[in-house]
Amino acid sequence: MAAWQPSKYTRAQLEERRLTALPMIQAGDTPNQQIADSFGVSTHTFYSWKERLRHQGGLEATPTTGCPSRLTSEQRQQLCTLLQEGACAHHFLEHLS
């Protein structure tokens, strides 16, 4: 029986897996399929790692910026204040049934 694995990994877990595989990839003495199998990835993913290593020089996670905030810092502060005051302070029911 195979060991349990989560259905989704966090970005940190994915990075850790890549970095753990790095010495084996760099050594070049283990067959690619064997490395892919031992880390639970497809050969396509494994070759993506090798390509990334070749072009970027490493397998560290890249920062994700996402969409820029649409709120100004002043609006964010106002929102925090409103949320801390609670729903009743703004004539909303605390609990809806």
From TrEMBL:
| Keyword annotations of the record | Plasmid
Pfam families, sorted: HTH_23
Output the InterPro entries linked to this UniProt entry. Homeodomain-like_sf
Where does the source fall among the domains of life?
A: Bacteria
- What protein name applies here? Uncharacterized protein
Provide the species name: Deinococcus psychrotolerans
Lineage in the entry?
A: Bacteria, Thermotogati, Deinococcota, Deinococci, Deinococcales
